[in-house]
Amino acid sequence: MTLTVLKISHFEQLNGKIFASLLPRLTHLKIDYLILQIVIKWFLTLHSFLHSRLLYCKLV
User: Fold this and answer.
1) CA dihedral 49, 50, 56, 57 (to 10 degrees)
2) Which residues contact 9 (CB under 8 A, 6 or more apart)?
3) Is the pTM of this model over 0.70?
4) Residue 23 CB neighbours (<10 A)
5) How far apart, in whole angstroms, are the C-alpha atoms of residue 14 and residue 10?
6) Which of 1, 10, 11, 49 lies at a C-alpha separation of 20 to 30 Å from 19?
7) Percentage of residues in the chain with pLDDT exceeding 70?
8) C-alpha distances in Å from residue 10, one per residue of 13, 16, 17, 20, 37
9) Mean pLDDT score, 53-59
10) How far is CA 28 from CA 15, 19, 24, 31, 40, in A?
11) Buried b (16+ CB within 10 A) or exposed e, 39-50
């Protein structure tokens, strides 16, 4: 093997290790993002519900 082939092989191995170590973190970020979206939607729904109840109470 030439030195260039060994360097490419070494970089490919490093790339694989880096990708493998980042993959779980990316998965956690996706899960955190989904949880955040659910919380935001829940908060907006609750806010609109309470706002409509407040308007109803003022009208009655």
Assistant:
1) 160
2) 1
3) no
4) 10
5) 6
6) 1
7) 82
8) 5, 10, 11, 15, 40
9) 71
10) 20, 14, 6, 5, 18
11) eeeeeeeeeeee
Contacts of 1 (CB under 8 A, 6+ apart): 9
**AA identity, residue 47:** H
Reported as a pLDDT band with limits 50, 70 and 90, residue 40 is very high
On the 0-12 / 13-18 / 19+ scale of CB atoms within 10 A, 9 is: exposed
Tokens of 19: 């990708």
- Of 24, 46, 45, 26, nearest to 34 by C-alpha is 26
Q: If you search the block for the tokens 């490919």, which residue do you land on?
A: 12
